[in-house]
Amino acid sequence: MEFILSIWGPASKLFKDSPPLLMALFSARLGSRGLSLMHFMPLLENDLLAHTSDNSGFTMDFSNKTTPPPTPLECTSYDDILSALYGLKSFGNKLWFDYLNVLISRLIHFVSDNRSQDPSNSSIRVKRTLQLSNAFLGAALDHLAADSPSWWRDYWGEVHKISSESLSWILALQNIQASQVACLRAAATAHTGSATAPSAHASSDGNRRSQANSYNPIPEHIRRQVPRRPDGTEPCLRFFGGSMCHGGTVDRCAYSKRTHVWDSPLPREVQSCINRLYGGNKRSHYGPQRG
Questions:
Q1: Which of 20, 186, 253, 276 could form an SS bridge with 236, CB 3.0 to 4.6 Å?
Q2: How far apart are CA 118 and CA 93, in angstroms?
């Protein structure tokens, strides 16, 4: 009884449906194996006060018949996912071993990386981030519940797969981009007859950008090294790699926020990457000189 009370106390101060959540926690039924991360959203201060002010939220029913908590509302931002992860980590810091806390920390870094890459919190990418986070969590916990001599090695193998540069996430991003391109094409087709000349030009520029970005062969760690001016303009990597952007000229890039004139050499890793991708260093680092 003393042990049950010791684990119930921290959980009741963090989560509303603490008994079913505790059962899921200690039977490793999380993520794709059971409860979603969103079940672990910590209570806000006012909700916590209302929940703990009387005995209405108190229960010691830890039987298999305990009603599972309702499905949480769909999250709308990366902050929602991070809030749930920090709620889970707060519980884990009190009662879990370090190797489980490392798993949660990796998930926090994964979600944080996506938040920095998608400041607009696009709904489809937020949804995919939550889905893959649940999948990562469930895959790792599978090995803790397995009766296998290699469970420890397999567990850490799954933990180290949790990354914004993992193959599963790269494939998920490509699917997202493909669906966005399809939506843009459908919208452009529906408004072909009513678009004015300026808006048609903007749509054409947007379609070219979407098509060019539907598959981006440049690794993310290289993309982060690409220089950018204060107004958001960046060098046209295809041009500086020795090729030509689709629809552009030597003096002018086809995209409004890219340029064929840059004031300094590109970082060594960036230049090496685009040389391999776009045909070799056929021109100067600086592109055409300013007149």
A1: 253
A2: 29
Per-residue pLDDT of the chain (291 residues; tens, 9 = 90+): 444 445 445 544 555 555 666 666 665 567 666 678 887 777 655 555 555 555 555 455 545 555 566 666 678 899 999 988 887 887 767 667 788 889 999 999 999 999 999 999 998 999 999 999 988 988 888 888 788 899 999 999 999 999 988 888 999 888 888 887 877 788 777 766 555 545 544 555 555 555 444 445 678 888 888 898 888 888 988 888 888 877 778 888 888 888 998 888 999 888 888 888 877 544 544 454 443
- CB-based contact 31:141 (threshold 8 Å): yes
User: What is the sign of the dihedral through the CA atoms of 212, 214, 215 and 220?
Assistant: positive
* pTM for the model: 0.53
Containing domain of residue 152, as a range? 2-162
Looking at the structure, do residues 209 and 279 belong to the same domain, yes or no?
no
Same domain, 13 and 96: yes
- Structurally, the chain folds into a number of domains equal to 3
Convert the chain into a string of H (helix), E (strand) and C (coil).
CHHHHHHHHHHHCCCCCHHHHHHHHHCCCEHHHCECHHHHCCCCHHHHHHHHCCCCCCCCCCCCCCCCCCCCCCCCCHHHHHHHHHHHHHHHHHHCCHHHHHHHHHHHHHHHHHHHHCCCCCHHHHHHHHHHHHHHHHHHHHHHCCCCCCHHHHHHHHHHCCCCCCHHHHHHHHHHHHHHHHHHHHHHHHCCCCCCHHHHHHHHHHHHHHHHHCCCCCCHHHHCCCCCCCCCCEECHHHHCCCCCCCCCCCCCCCCCEECCCCCCCCHHHHHHHHHHHCCCCCCCCCCCCC
